[in-house]
Amino acid sequence: MYTVFSTFLVPDHKADEVIGLYQKRSRRVDKAPGFLDFLLLQNEKKPGEITVQLFFTDKDSYLTWVRSSEFKRIHELEKKYPDQELANIVPKVTQHQVVAR
Q: What average pLDDT does range 28-49 have in this prediction?
């Protein structure tokens, strides 16, 4: 299994807005070959620190997703988000191979 964390910081007062966006997400990734699960995490002590966690069966499936036109389409829409303070946030992305469960 392969998991990817995308962590970003938003102003605390905008955290609920961002969470709402993800709760209404397009779910396009859910249809990607090898996709297993999606989690949205909020840091308990830093409410503006939000992490998207994706699970794929393997690294190749994840790489196929990030090279897909659907991935590009979703991320282009994010850049056009009306609130430029949120649209310009760049996440810190880390990728992990699951080695034990």
A: 96
Is the overall model pTM greater than 0.70, yes or no? Answer: yes
Least confident piece of the model among 19-23, 45-49, 86-90, 97-101: 86-90
Parse the chain into domains and list their residue ranges: 2-97
DSSP state string for the chain = -EEEEEEEE--GGGHHHHHHHHHT----GGGSTTEEEEEEEE-SS-TTEEEEEEEESSHHHHHHHHTSHHHHHHHHHHHT-S-HHHHT---EEEEEE----
Please state which CATH number belongs to domain 2-97.
3.30.70.100
d(CA 5, CA 54): 7
Which pLDDT value is given to residue 54? Answer: 97
CA atoms within 13 A on the CB side of 91: 17
Answer yes or no: are the C-beta atoms of 54 and 38 closer than 8 Å: yes
